[in-house]
Every structure is written in structure tokens, then in C-alpha cells.
Design a protein that fits this description.
The protein is an alpha/beta fold and about 425 residues long. Helices cover about 35% and strands about 15% of the residues.
Length: about 425
């Protein structure tokens, strides 16, 4: 009897996560062959020597005995209470622990919140460029992601008129990623106010991804979306991964505020979905209260002389010296979304550039088209490596771009291997 090919679900047809796609797997293959790869494709602080604050580690250790059983499906009370207190300190009103859900990172909560809301072909407005999990999760949960442009010429800040033009009778929600991944944009308060008014006018749920809420440069101000949305539902998503350098703890939270009264059935659906997975990782939850209520060490990393500040500065200094690169200066988060100037290299292809850079210069980046944009001349790198490593990265990039400019394009593995990245 002949074997039959096992096909994946057709529901995955429009789902991609290129940050850990075929380029990433090729990098792993090269590392097994003995090559040293500089990986700039993902914002994983632990991979670059950043440590979670010791007080958070101790909080977990001291509560391990209390972590051996399941906890409440929404999370342990001290963690949820700490999130409430944080939101209240930022001016968010009418919130209690009943509106807070702890999840296995923001990633799980993005999936659960969309699964609890969407019906087949419901539309969700998602920024372009976006963190691609948002688009993937909408598609996985039977919806349709409709991308609103955040244009480079406007420093990647959206224009509310563009968003308004995309709203239809099928639109259920709008996603705001602020500070933004991948661009590093931090949205000004008037822009956020306009989005809030638009959501209230059309009764849209606002999903505000604020995982980088304290990673800000140049004294830029951050405005929590929940302080602006009152007559519609706002779901704020954040966690320990980035600000507290605790990606592996897998602790995030979703906070329901605004017009909660008319969202009780939806919140009940969220509790059902949370119950089906029993609970989030319990040990990591014990770090939340200590993290949010303790010393905010992230500020040391962001001021002049701090590691993230100096690495970001190294990126911008090297781009200023480059013949081929340009960038909209990041104001927050831990990334820059870098442009390869099409006036100098008009036929550039971001995926081929990323492949060539990996194969010949042993540097792994995320191609810009990974982030649901229509152009192909950008790429994302992270601020996490030390400044001296980033100087070396840009030296290698410039060498590769010089070879492009002179017509000496290196030969890499066949480009078709990139189709399903």
C-alpha cells in the first residue's frame, strides 16, 4: 500500500512568520557547519547577554512551591493586581482584576483575543508594516487582515484618513502597535486621539500592542491608548518580555477597558478560552508584581552611555556614513527599519539581499517584506547587539552593497528557496 502525503491545514495558506522562516533555518544549518552567524532577526534580549533583573528571579524562586499547581485561568491575583495598579498610575479609569488576563506571552493573548471576537471574514485593520503575528493571527482565526499604511515619508505614523477609508460593514477591530515594531515609531497623542475617536464612531475594538511601552528615546512621550478610548472597548497588551528582558518567562497580559459594559459576553468568551488552556505559566507570574512595582532598570539602558542607547547610536552613525542606506530614526522599541536607497540601487530585492548577506557575510536580518509592506527595499535589525558588533555588521553590509553597485553580485543559493519564508 503506497504512502500518502500528509497535507497541512488549508487554514495555514495565508499564514506566515518569516522572522523564523527559511532564512532563520538556513542560518541554523550554517551554524551547525561551523559558521559564526550574527543574528539580528529577532528581539531576544537573553541571546545578547541581557539579564532579567535579579529581584524578578528571586520572586520566582521564593514562590516555586506555590507554582506547582494550576492557578486561576485569568492568572494569579498579585500579578493581575499589579497590572491594575500600573494602568491606574497611567490614568486608566474603571479597571479591576476581573478585566485582566495573564497569558503565555503577548503572542498567546493576541491569538485568544482574536479567537474570542472574530467570525468568518470579519475584518481587522492592521498597520503596514506590522508585527506579522497580528496578520497571521487574524487569518488563523477566520478573519481578514486589512492593512492601513504607515508611510515612511510620514515617519511611519498612520494618517487617520487612510484608516477611515478602509472601514466597511465587516470591520470589527483596529490594531495599534505603539511603540512600533518594526519601525521604532512612537505615535503622537493627536494621532492616537484621532484613532480612538474613529474606533468609537464605528464601534470598533481597539487592540493596543504596547509591549515596548517603556523603551523610549530622545525624551519622546508615550500615551497609553486606554486613556483615550472610553466609548468603545480597548484591549491593551503588554508583558515582561522586552522591558524586563524576560522573553523566556512567557508572561504577558491583556487588559480590557473602556466600554466594558457592552463587552461582557466577549470577556466571558475570553475566560472560556483561557479555561480551555487551564492557565498560563505560573512561576513566571510571580515576577510581575516585583517587576512593575520595583526599580525600572530599563531606564539605565536607554540613557546616554546605556547599552541600548549606544547600540542605537551606532546604527544611526553607520547609516549616516553609508553610501546606500537611510533610516527613519527610531524613537522607541528595539529596532530600526532600514532603507536601501532605490535611487542608488533601483533593482534591490530585500529577500535576495538578506540571503546574500547571510550566505556571504554571515549576518541574519529580517527582510522588510516580512512585515506586510508593498515595497522591497527595507530590512529590520535589532538594537540588542553591542555597538562594536553593529559596527562590524555595517562594514559587512557596505561591502556587499559595494559589490551590488559594481555589478559583482555574489552567487547565493537559488532564490526560489525564499518563496515560503
Amino acid at each position: 500500500m503506497s504512502a500518502q502525503t500528509i497535507r497541512p491545514s488549508s487554514g495555514l495558506a495565508n499564514v506566515k512568520y518569516e522572522i523564523r522562516g527559511r532564512l532563520f533555518r538556513r542560518a541554523q544549518e550554517m551554524e551547525r557547519q561551523g559558521y559564526e552567524i550574527i543574528s539580528l532577526n529577532i528581539g531576544n534580549p537573553g541571546a545578547f547577554g541581557f539579564r532579567t533583573p535579579e529581584t524578578m528571579r528571586l520572586a520566582i524562586i521564593e514562590n516555586l512551591r506555590a507554582s506547582e499547581g494550576y492557578c486561576h485561568q485569568k492568572g494569579i491575583f498579585p500579578a493581575r493586581e499589579a497590572v491594575v495598579m500600573l494602568q491606574q498610575s497611567r490614568g486608566v479609569r474603571d479597571i479591576s482584576v476581573e478585566e485582566v488576563f495573564i497569558g503565555n506571552g503577548v503572542s498567546e493573548l493576541i491569538d485568544l483575543t482574536l479567537r474570542g471576537l472574530l467570525n468568518t471574514d470579519d475584518e481587522v485593520l492592521v498597520p503596514s508594516p506590522d508585527y506579522p503575528l497580528w496578520t497571521a493571527a487574524v487569518n488563523l482565526n477566520r478573519g481578514r487582515a486589512v492593512h492601513y499604511p504607515c508611510r515612511p515619508e510620514n515617519n511611519f505614523v498612520p494618517d487617520v484618513k487612510d484608516i477611515q477609508a478602509l472601514i466597511t460593514s465587516r470591520t470589527r477591530a483596529i490594531v495599534v502597535i505603539n511603540p512600533n515594531n518594526p519601525t521604532g515609531a512612537v505615535y503622537p497623542r493627536p494621532t492616537l486621539e484621532a484613532i480612538a475617536k474613529l474606533a468609537e464612531k464605528h464601534h470598533l475594538v481597539v487592540y493596543s500592542d504596547e509591549i515596548y511601552d517603556q523603551i523610549l528615546y530622545d525624551d519622546v512621550a508615550f500615551t497609553p491608548m486606554a486613556t483615550l478610548v472610553h466609548n468603545s472597548l480597548c484591549v491593551t497588551l503588554s508583558g515582561l518580555s522586552k522591558v524586563y528582558r524576560a522573553c523566556g518567562y512567557r508572561v504577558g497580559w491583556a487588559v480590557f477597558t473602556g466600554d466594558v459594559k457592552h463587552a461582557r459576553d466577549y470577556i466571558s468568551a475570553m475566560e472560556l478560552l483561557s479555561s480551555l488552556r487551564l492557565c498560563a505559566n505560573v512561576p513566571g507570574q510571580w515576577a510581575v508584581q516585583t517587576a512593575l512595582g520595583g526599580y525600572q532598570s530599563i531606564k539605565e539602558l536607554l540613557r546616554s552611555g546605556g547599552r541600548l542607547f549606544e547600540s542605537r547610536q551606532a546604527i544611526h552613525d553607520n547609516i549616516r556614513k553609508s553610501k546606500y542606506l537611510d533610516v527613519n530614526l527610531s524613537r522607541g522599541a528595539i529596532y530600526d527599519f532600514i532603507e536601501i536607497r532605490s535611487d542608488i540601487l533601483p533593482e534591490i530585492d530585500d529577500q535576495q539581499f538578506a540571503l546574500d548577506l547571510l550566505e556571504h557575510k554571515h549576518v541574519l536580518i529580517a527582510p522588510g517584506s516580512s512585515f506586510n509592506v508593498p515595497y522591497r527595499n527595507r530590512f529590520r535589525i535589532t538594537h540588542l547587539p553591542r555597538a562594536e558588533v553593529l559596527h562590524e555588521v555595517f562594514t559587512r553590509m557596505e561591502e556587499l552593497l559595494d559589490s551590488y553597485s559594481s555589478g559583482r553580485r555574489p552567487v547565493s543559493r537559488p532564490a526560489p528557496s525564499l518563496k515560503a519564508i
